[in-house]
Amino acid sequence: MKKTAKRSKPAQILRKEAQLHLMVLPAVLLVLIFSYFPLYGLKIAFQRFLPAKGLFGSQRFVGLDNFKYVLSLPNFLPVLRNTFIIAGAKIVLNLLVPVTVALMLNEVNSSRIKRPIQTIIYFPHFLSWIIFGGILIDLLSPSSGIVNKIITALGGKAVYFLGDNRYFRGTVILTDVWKNFGYGTIVYLAAITGIDVTLYEAAQIDGANRWQQTWHVTLPGIRMTVVLMMVLALGRVLNAGFDQLYNLCKPIVYESGDILDTFVYRLGLENGSFGPATAVGLFRSVVSLVFISTAYAVAYKWFDYRLF
Amino acid sequence: MKKLFCILLTGLMLLSCASGCFAEGTDYKAIYADRVGYVVDNFASWAEENGVSDYLKPYDAPTTVTMVHNYNNSCENMIGKLGDHYGENYSTNRWTEIMKKCLNIDVQYDWWAHDDDYNTKLRMSMGASTLPDVFVVNQQSDVAQLAEAGQIIPLNDLIEKCALPEIRERWYMDGGLTLSMVTIDGQIYGFPQTLSHTDDAAYIFIRSDWMKELGIEEPRTIEDVWDIGYKFVEAGKAKYGVFLEAGQPSVMYDYLRGMCEAYHAYPQTWVVTDDGKLQFGATQDAMRAPLKQLQKMYADGMIDPEFATKDETKAFEEIINGNIGLVFGPHWVMTFVMNMYDLEPTKDVTWYCCAIPDSDGNIVPEAIKTNNRGFVCINANCKNPEAAFKMLNLYHYASYYSNDPTWWGYEESYSRMIAPVWSTVKPTDNLDTYENLQKVFAANDPSLLEGKAVSYYGNITSSDYKKAWAWNQMFGTADYTPMKVLKYLNENGLLFYNAYVGAPSITYQDYWSTMDDLTTQMLIKVIMGADVDTTFDEYVKQWNAIGGEKITEEANEWYQQHR
């Protein structure tokens, strides 16, 4: 008894687990260097930053001027609105669609059908947006794209999906779901496989049909995975997808498709205004922190789920 | 028959092999030794004869100058060949050798970067305080920042004392506009690597094979030009009446500018109004007329309905595929168009080229702007700031007064681009080259070729048909070439400079890109059907509100000092 008590002293634990700590050290160092050290650069958000003077040089402190400047830009509010709408819709649909598809695929018995479908829907996930975007521009072209060929063949009028402010956001959201739902589906399918088969047998004995089994066994079974994916997704609520919008959003649809990331890119890298760009980045991080904390609290309270 | 063909082919192959061998048989070592030797032996006496010895005086003790340098794809192709021939590379080559042998300067490169990465890499060096002694800065705002941070020195005195009078004269040929781009509070913070100022001038290109086929006369007014676009479509020759592209806003103006100029509107230029004030062209009322015309043409299906999302390459496919026969654009449009011959090598496509007329049939004045490949800046910690000027002077000597200027500057087209500091051409370089080429073709005497005309002559007389075609269309003896038009414009005083090129102010740095976005969006929206007057009024109001008013004020202040 006495021996075990002695062993649990911190120093001894450390000695005993030294190898493990050593193994985790590189990862911790990487996080320190690439995630914590750059926090120092956040001070740029409060400076009139001249790259010529350097990060450690004597930059002029301007308080909240950069934030005021960004707010004074006429396109900041539309950009914020676009970001929320696009990111919000993506979060919701990227949750609903994969879960639904996973449930449906789960009902398919023949693996000769199931596996090819899985592979086909997973495939676009591996294409970068620069390639997928090029494919989309061709597919959705009003004059020569196959989608509009079908629409006109059915008697409709060709739609300028990527050049019309009425359709642009919808197009962006749906194509993103198209590209990514295969990945989510695989995650949920894996979760479904992990459900204890005896639960289904018990439900069958109780006289539950397929629908009731899905509702009462499968869905509660993957609940934790859904919550986890949701919490992680909410942290990205202001991340509407730079890669996608950078490739698809042309000036004609800035009104409905310009998001914070593309805005910061033009501001910071094309225009060299590092201060305001950092200010927007900081703003985005703060909002994301609020969202992810809320999501975490909700997950903990309602689902008794702890991520950390 | 087949056999004969085979024999012929084999013969040809052998021949080309043999010629290849002969080519390799050229004694490159001797050429190199001769050209370098000539410069080393003669620069001092040339300087003495012309009374400029002080400008080319070698250092007594070996002097090291650290530099960074940029290159592009053309350079990369070239350096491979120069390496094979002479063993040259980016950091040791003909230029560094004469800098050492003539001036006792050791050029030491910290790094070379591709143009795509150069600006970013230079900003990193700025941030890390690892800037070399001499370096090129491409962005006007970076020069301003470096000056504000005290990292570079003003060059006023050095320009007076150290730059060859001939070079200085060329820098001021544009009335000092180029230098004023980097002049802050009267201090000049860089000297330009000059380029021809007429590169962006717009012309009208029309498919003349279609004109002939349809019996269309040469256009006199801008209405005639639009009419030709409509006729091409009606006759089933073309799919669209005129070329337009707006998916890449940065290049959109290359094609839009000419159309606006026909109505005396200059969307990207600061113009002087009747009361002597500066105004930004895009916000002038003159813009309404071209916008109305383009809107009408868009509604009539004369403009590609996807023009707003297509990038330049994709948009050009329509011309290459023979779907468009009317283009407003700079002379280099022809180098894009030459790809038509990959598709239909047998087709005899010809292009008519003319200056832009207004609706009365008068040729409109053409806006040009200063043009240079970056500014050379000198580090505040540099111990020998005059070294950069000495090197430029020697570059100038080798490029114009050595026994083989072409070898120095235009071997493989680009050998000048690896010189530590380079390019002292006149702002009218394109035009001079054109006139030189005309003289050469008239006399049929290639020995008269000067400067870059040598490589252009090579392109025009190239055995590669499409290359020869494109270059002949631009600089050759064809009846309708953009350079011929340019010559006309120049002789008739129809070229004018963008009136405001001052160093960017804080407001300009902060708001210009947002204002630029605003302009682009307004233009596209109106062309696609938004009401011209209300949209334009709303745009002008917003443009002024977010900084336009302030910038216009600053521009006018600057203009008062520099007119």
Q: Indicate the CATH topology of the largest domain in chain B.
A: D-Maltodextrin-Binding Protein, domain 2
- Number of strand elements of chain B: 14
Please tally the helical runs of chain B, counting DSSP H or I stretches of 4 or more residues: 24
- DSSP strand (E) fraction of chain A? under 5%
Number of β-strand runs of chain A: 2
Q: State the assembly state of the protein chains.
A: heterodimer
Task: Give the N-terminus to C-terminus distance of chain A in angstroms.
Answer: 31 Å
> What's the main sheet of chain A like?
2 strands, antiparallel
Number of helices of chain A: 16
Order of helices and strands of chain A: HHHEEHHHHHHHHHHHHH
CATH architecture of the largest domain in chain B: 3-Layer(aba) Sandwich
Helix-and-strand structural type of chain A: mainly alpha
Supply Rg of chain A.
25 Å
Q: Average pLDDT of chain A, to the nearest integer?
A: 86
CATH-defined fold name of chain A? MetI-like fold
Which stretches of chain A of 5+ consecutive residues score pLDDT under 50?
A: none
Structural class of chain B: mainly alpha
> Biggest interface in this structure?
A-B, 31 and 37 residues
Look at the structure and name the CATH superfamily of chain A: MetI-like
Low-confidence stretches of chain B: 15-23
Arrangement of strands in the largest sheet of chain B:
3-13-6
Describe this structure in words.
The complex is a heterodimer of chains A (308) and B (563). Helix content of chain A is 70%, strand content 1%. Chain A has 308 residues and is mostly helical. Chain A has one domain: MetI-like fold (Orthogonal Bundle). In chain A, strands 1-2 form a two-stranded antiparallel ribbon. With 563 residues, chain B is mainly alpha-helical. Chain B starts with a helix and ends with a helix. Chain B folds into two domains: 223 residues, D-Maltodextrin-Binding Protein, domain 2, CATH 3.40.190.10; 265 residues, Periplasmic binding protein-like II (D-Maltodextrin-Binding Protein, domain 2), CATH 3.40.190. At the A-B interface, helix 15 of A face helix 5, helix 6, helix 23 and helix 24 of B.
